[in-house]
Amino acid sequence: ADVANGSRYGLIGQMLAKPGERDALAAILLEGTAAMPGCLSYVVALDTKNPDALWITEVWDSKDSHAASLKLPAVQAAIAKARSIITGFGHRFETTPLGGAGLAR
Amino acid sequence: ADVANGSRYGLIGQMLAKPGERDALAAILLEGTAAMPGCLSYVVALDTKNPDALWITEVWDSKDSHAASLKLPAVQAAIAKARSIITGFGHRFETTPLGGAGLAR
Predict the structure, then answer these.
(1) B41 touches chain A (CB under 8 A)
(2) How many CB atoms lie within 10 A of CB B84?
(3) Which pLDDT tens digit goes with each residue over B12-35?
(4) A50 part of a folded domain
(5) Is residue B88 part of a domain?
(6) E-assigned strands of B19-85?
């Protein structure tokens, strides 16, 4: 088991798209988040109950890496592109990831 | 962007441990879930608000792979070991993962 020293930072959150724009929003997010330093996992998924909602689950090697990612050009571009089709956010949970399969070490 | 054909299956859920047993539960889960066919991601994380709660986020290449994993010896052993220190479950969301960083293809 890979019980980390508690330094990892995780986010689980819902993002809400304008009706009919969910796939476009997902594509923007996937494009902008492909190469972020310190990102161990970033998954974009469809909510199966709300047709306008995406679930985004993230694992970072630290909270600082997450904060720094928001200044990356690709992320800034994605935020700018996505702004017009995001209507809001839903659930949002902060976590401390311990480990697991599929995490880049 | 890796917008899948909608066949992937994802789960986001809280698992509640007996007070003081959360780390033990996490270790059991991490041990039992290290090698599951079709599992693209399985992350065990501490809830930062509830000291007894874990967040488990999973991505599978299909719902069938997830169902089959429950019969794996290692998973059955983990369930048996964990049963005595699980008090219940919290939030549980099913998703359709589209893609992202850190997903085994």
Answers:
(1) yes
(2) 10
(3) 999 999 999 999 999 999 999 999
(4) yes
(5) yes
(6) 39-47, 53-60
